[in-house]
Amino acid sequence: MNKKLEELTDEEFLNITKFHNEMVTEHLENVLYDFIPYYIVTGLKCNALWDDNFKRIVNTSLEAFSPYRFRNKIDYNRIKKTLRKEYNIKKW
After folding, report:
1. Residue 32 belongs to a domain
2. What is the pTM assigned to this prediction?
């Protein structure tokens, strides 16, 4: 983990964060392509979807990721447990 941000040049910082952001974006896209069909299927099972065009239904499913929805509901202990168990990271 980097500790001295001020020792990095702007270019070094951008190179590090660019690589990280690309990895996270790729993972998130994979999660989304699993989540969106799940959202649609459960919506159909619960009769909770209205007849609309496909793009609007997909875009509506993405609202589930709204930061406002999760802001006060984050279980930090669950995240720490996953970091320890799945990735062997015990920093926190």
Report:
1. yes
2. 0.66
